[in-house]
Design a protein that fits this description.
- The N and C termini lie far apart (195 Å).
- The radius of gyration is 50 Å and the shape is elongated.
- It has ten helices and six strands, in the order H-H-H-E-H-H-E-E-H-E-H-H-E-E-H-H.
- The chain has 287 residues and is mainly alpha-helical.
- Strands 1-3-2 form a three-stranded antiparallel sheet. Strands 4-6-5 form a three-stranded antiparallel sheet.
- Helix 3 packs across helix 4 and helix 3 packs across helix 5.
- One of its GO terms (biological process) is transcription initiation at RNA polymerase II promoter.
- Belongs to the TFIIE beta subunit family.
- Its main location: nucleus.
- Tetramer of two alpha and two beta chains.
- InterPro entries: TFA2_Winged_2 (IPR040501), TFIIE-bsu (IPR016656), TFIIE_bsu_DNA-bd (IPR003166).
Length: 287
Amino acid sequence: MSKLAQDAAAFKSVLQRQDYTSWHSQPPSLDKSSEQDAAPSGSKKKRPKSNIVYSQPADTGTGTNVNTQLVYAVNHLKSTHNPMRLQDLAILTSTPLDTDHVLLEKFKAHDRVIWDPKTDLYSYKHEFNFRNKAALLTEIQRQTRKGGGIPVRALKESWKEAPAAIEELEAEGEVLVTRTTKDGQLKMVFWNEIKPTEESGGMIVEKEFLDLWHELKVPNDVDLLKQLSSEGLQATTAAAGPAPKGPSTKKKGKKGTAARTRQVRITNTHLKGDIDLSKDYVPTKPT
């Protein structure tokens, strides 16, 4: 075969492999055709759902304000319950505590931040300082003697295991606890001065007697007198006081019709018998 024949055969093979059909003449894919058939004519495409809430500001971290960065650093130190290095606190809170001198001075001057110059560690000054159940009970006793209880939330901030320890002390009869009515969470704790013994009392009332007590209903005012009389009792009455006076019907500004006789006190006794001083003086006319 000549050189010309070889080139012609190669050219024909290339023409056979080439696709000259237009892009708009290609049939649509099966997936797209099914979506177009399923969607009604004239309907708009649905936008993909997004979890972004545009009404809320985005969380930009600790920000650039010194006071905002100070709040972040103090709150993180409060949640650790352990002393921390300044470098670790700066890394965990993404704040320039170790480079910004203004922020560092405010951080050291905070009334809840304790700095140990020997170890160069920072810790949070909690309202209470205890780390075990015995010290917790001592603190509760001290506050109860002052005339009040302690909020459980404040104890939990000082020691995260405080709620569990308080429940153990309540079961042992050492403390008294008030709870929320909605979910029964611990609210206030008091020291139980009366230990639960059979001699001195203080034992927890059994649930059966509590149910019987709450089932009792006080009758209304009408039926109360009947219930008392049926039991041979009598209702107490208040001591009778003076009868209230009625409103006065006397009208001011009007005098009675009867004339009052006014008594005249005579002081000039040496004129007695000669001149009647109880009468008005009328001069006599000359004759």
